[in-house]
Amino acid sequence: MDKNQKLLLIFIGFCMFVVVGLVAYNVLMPKPEVLPDDIEVSKRSVEEEVVEKPQEQSKEYINVYFIGKNEHNEEVYKAVKRVYNKDVDGSKIKFAIASLILGPKPEERQRGVYTEIPTGSEIININEQSDKVIVNLNSAYVNGGGADSLYKRLYQLIKTVKLNSTLPVYLFIDGQKADVIGGEGIMLSQPLSDSSLEN
């Protein structure tokens, strides 16, 4: 074995010693603990982690009174639900009266629900005060249809407002307090209550 071969063997032996030493060092030495803050997370995975299915909020309803028939084919006042969102619809009383004036939905009409409130009836304004509510409707609300129709539409309004306001509610027509209604001269005692038409 010549001198060059001896040097080559020594070099190979040295290299093997270094490699074995490094392997042994990595295997035997304890690893530093990795903390959550040390881990780099991609932006996409953060978004996927944060984005959750929005929780479905429980719906709130108000009731509006229309007219329909019961199982004995008798005419009755029917409370019909409307989905209410205070952030969109404002106060319950305003939303309830607006829904009442709009009338039944097409699918409700198909089930025999109807209203005696005439087409053309409009809300002029609804004034909510600390001690009372004034509902001001236009004169179309009290025009036409005869006494029977007038009684029914007044009861629709009375039942709806009583269900959706804890304050006394007064009916005004074209800005005037409505003590006498329509050409038939129906007396209306106020604030509105179930006994308002019992005169």
Short description:
The protein has 199 residues and is of the alpha+beta class. 37% of the residues lie in helices and 21% in strands. The chain contains 6 helices and 8 strands; from the N terminus they run ααββαααββαββββ.
3D architecture notes:
The chain is built from 6 helices and 8 strands. By secondary structure, it is of the alpha+beta class. It has a domain at 60-187. The protein has a 4-stranded mixed beta sheet, with helices on one face. A two-stranded antiparallel sheet has the order 1-2. Helix 4 packs antiparallel against helix 6. The longest helix is centred in the first third of the chain and has 26 residues, at 3-28. The radius of gyration is 39 Å and the shape is rod-shaped.
Low-confidence stretches: 33-53
What is the tally of helical segments?
6
Number of strands: 8
Q: Tell me the fraction of residues in β-strands, as a range.
A: 15-25%
Kindly report how far apart the N and C termini lie: 134 Å
What is the arithmetic mean of pLDDT? Answer: 82
Structural class: alpha+beta
- Globally, the shape reads rod-shaped
Task: Give the oligomeric state.
Answer: single chain
Largest sheet: 4 strands, mixed
Helix coverage percent: 25-40%
Return Rg in Å. 39 Å
What's the order of the H and E elements? HHEEHHHEEHEEEE
What strand order characterises the main sheet?
3-4-5-6
